[in-house]
């Protein structure tokens, strides 16, 4: 992090050094053939990657046509008959299973944006106050770690610790205290998955805030201290404004994912609590389409979800520009 | 107060692991005595590990996970380096549209059903390649690596070019040796991804004998399907406690992550920041 802060701003370095132009002349019309010959090795190097991106990112985009088709697994996509917007009926006619999935998704998103999203910032502010550099690094190492575990591992750990036969309840039972069950209880499903998300990713989320904090000009703190600002006021008037744009950037990205709430995490625990409490849009697409065989309808839901997500990011970004923030990309 | 919160935070992360490792090492008596979990094991035994690693379901899944992780990581790195390098040479043919096309994949995901259909049309269902090819390229990693390549002084490559080196030679002789740090981090990111892959395995792999470790973990630990003697291994008649076996599977799937974690940790903040600042 500190290395990054010390590095000179790259843009100006690049601008100040024109050698790029000497070895690789800027685009000149009519020279495509010459450029092709010059760059053929580069193109060859890029080819496998480009191929993968085309086949596994852009070809599936085309595959979304099955949202408008009556696809059956024994027909090819081309052979399947067009059905217009019929598959979108599940969305517009308010199919109860779909509405349930949508409602759950929105509730979970709301909970996560309100309660989970600000946590890394709070933790980063806490970590920032730790004076000893060594201690800070140890704490960071420990708190980042769960991010690298798979959801299967996290869910398994939670079950073993908090499950009805898990460690905590066993301990409580031994001491004749009332046990509590959080796993497999539909009413507590949101609490369960939220606490799992917090456990897994709060520490990891601090990285970006800590980096932003480390780049705050220290003379601002000194000036504020001279003017008699205490630690809390310095945090409020110096640190927080300085990292506002990072915060807003992450918020926009999170909002773009508003309709995506952990597929792996939820599908793993769906058996225990049932679909009513746990079905979200992604699990609906999986259960309704791949498991249930309603390919076209599931693809229609997936496509709508993807389009809305992109619109959400673009919309939130425009809003950020209106408020004078940089946003995800510049205008 | 701050110290207290941070201590509790660390304890919440560490204690579950302690319990899991201890239980995996416990004997039947100790498990029964504790009514389940063992926080600090008194007489550690490797019986559970011996049982699951002597040629049963877990051994096979472990091998599959290792193969997929190694092959996948190498392929991913090769493709990512090639793409990132081509995109980092200023003014190279087609680099702008390709860069935009790669960036765009970060914004829009094609959707589960079309993805499944593509994998199916390519004949990759129930093939271990389905765990590798769809996730071979991660746009974020390409961008991070490209940024790193852009930071290498142009003068180095220029002088090599004057000496008659072509792009491939420059990549191998100059760029790669200077990029060991970023290559190792991105490689580890890919490796962790392949090791943890659950979603793709669930979607594309149907025969149990091709299951990677994460699916075995889900079946026998999360869903608590009991393991019979034939699933565990051949030839041992007295099985270690079921709970210890489950915890041993859990430990085995965590250990590789814990082993690479310190190396990962050294570099990831820097790598992540490059991507975040530019992204």
From TrEMBL, chain B:
It is found in: Cell membrane. The keyword Zinc does not apply. Keywords: Cell membrane, Membrane, Sugar transport, Transmembrane, Transmembrane helix, Transport. GO terms for biological process: transmembrane transport. GO terms for cellular component: plasma membrane. Residues 62-264 form the ABC transmembrane type-1 domain. It is a multi-pass membrane protein. The chain crosses the membrane at residues 62-86, 98-117, 129-149, 170-192, 243-264. InterPro entries: MetI-like, MetI-like_sf. It holds the Pfam family BPD_transp_1. CDD domains: TM_PBP2. Belongs to the binding-protein-dependent transport system permease family. PANTHER family: ABC TRANSPORTER PERMEASE PROTEIN MG189-RELATED-RELATED, POLYGALACTURONAN_RHAMNOGALACTURONAN TRANSPORT SYSTEM PERMEASE PROTEIN YTCP. This is Multiple sugar transport system permease protein/putative aldouronate transport system permease protein. The lineage of its organism: Bacteria, Bacillati, Actinomycetota, Actinomycetes, Jiangellales.
């Amino acid at each position: 992090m500190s290395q990054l802060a010390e590095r000179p701003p790259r843009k100006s370095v690049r601008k100040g050094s024109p050698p790029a132009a000497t070895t690789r002349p800027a685009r000149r019309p009519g020279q495509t053939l010459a450029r092709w010959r010059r760059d053929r090795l580069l193109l060859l190097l890029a080819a496998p990657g480009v191929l993968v991106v085309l086949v596994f990112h852009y070809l599936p985009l085309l595959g979304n046509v099955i949202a408008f088709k009556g696809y059956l697994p024994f027909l090819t996509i081309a052979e399947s008959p067009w059905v217009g917007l019929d598959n979108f009926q599940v969305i517009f006619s308010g199919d109860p299973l779909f509405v349930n999935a949508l409602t759950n998704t929105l509730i979970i998103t709301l909970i996560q944006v309100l309660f989970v999203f600000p946590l890394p910032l709070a933790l980063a502010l806490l970590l920032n106050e730790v004076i000893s550099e060594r201690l800070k690094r140890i704490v960071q190492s420990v708190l980042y770690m769960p991010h690298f575990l798979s959801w299967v591992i996290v869910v398994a750990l939670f079950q073993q610790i908090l499950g009805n036969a898990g460690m905590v309840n066993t301990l409580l039972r031994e001491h004749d205290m009332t046990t509590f069950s959080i796993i497999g209880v539909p009413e507590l499903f949101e609490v369960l998955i939220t606490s799992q998300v917090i456990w897994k990713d709060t520490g990891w989320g601090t990285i970006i805030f800590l980096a932003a904090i480390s780049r705050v000009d220290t003379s601002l703190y000194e000036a504020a201290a001279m003017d008699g600002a205490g630690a809390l006021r310095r945090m409020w008037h110096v640190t927080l404004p300085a990292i506002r744009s990072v915060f807003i950037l992450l918020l926009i990205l999170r909002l773009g994912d508003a309709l995506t709430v952990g597929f792996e995490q939820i599908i793993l625990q769906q058996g225990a609590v049932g679909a009513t409490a746990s079905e979200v849009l992604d699990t609906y697409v999986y259960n309704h389409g791949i498991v249930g065989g309603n390919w076209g309808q599931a693809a229609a839901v997936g496509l709508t979800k993807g389009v809305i997500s992109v619109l959400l990011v673009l919309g939130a970004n425009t809003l950020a520009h209106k408020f004078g923030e940089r946003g995800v990309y510049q205008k | 107060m701050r110290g207290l919160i941070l201590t509790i935070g660390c304890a919440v992360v560490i204690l579950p692991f302690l319990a899991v490792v201890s239980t995996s090492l416990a004997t039947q008596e100790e498990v029964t005595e504790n009514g389940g979990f063992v926080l600090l094991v008194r007489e550690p035994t490797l019986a559970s590990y011996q049982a699951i690693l002597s040629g049963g379901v877990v051994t096979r899944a472990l091998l599959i996970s290792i193969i997929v992780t190694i092959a996948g990581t190498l392929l991913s790195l090769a493709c990512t380096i090639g793409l990132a390098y081509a995109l980092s040479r200023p003014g190279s043919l087609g680099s702008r549209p390709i860069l935009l096309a790669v960036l765009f994949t970060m914004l829009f995901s094609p959707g589960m059903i079309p993805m499944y259909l593509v994998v199916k049309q390519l004949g990759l269902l129930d093939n271990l390649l389905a765990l590798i090819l769809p996730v071979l390229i991660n746009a974020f990693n390409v961008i991070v690596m490209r940024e790193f390549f852009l930071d290498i002084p142009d003068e180095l490559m220029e002088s090599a070019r004057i000496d008659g080196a072509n792009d491939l030679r420059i990549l191998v002789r100059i760029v790669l040796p200077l990029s060991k740090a970023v290559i190792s981090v991105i490689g580890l990111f890919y490796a962790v991804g392949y090791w943890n892959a659950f979603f793709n395995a669930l979607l594309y792999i149907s025969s149990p004998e091709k299951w990677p470790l994460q699916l075995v973990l889900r079946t026998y630990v999360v869903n608590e399907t009991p393991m019979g003697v034939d699933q565990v291994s051949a030839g041992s008649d007295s099985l270690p406690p079921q709970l210890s076996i489950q915890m041993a599977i859990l430990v085995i799937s965590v250990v590789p992550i814990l082993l690479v974690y310190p190396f990962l940790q050294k570099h990831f903040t820097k790598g992540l920041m490059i991507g975040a600042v530019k992204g």
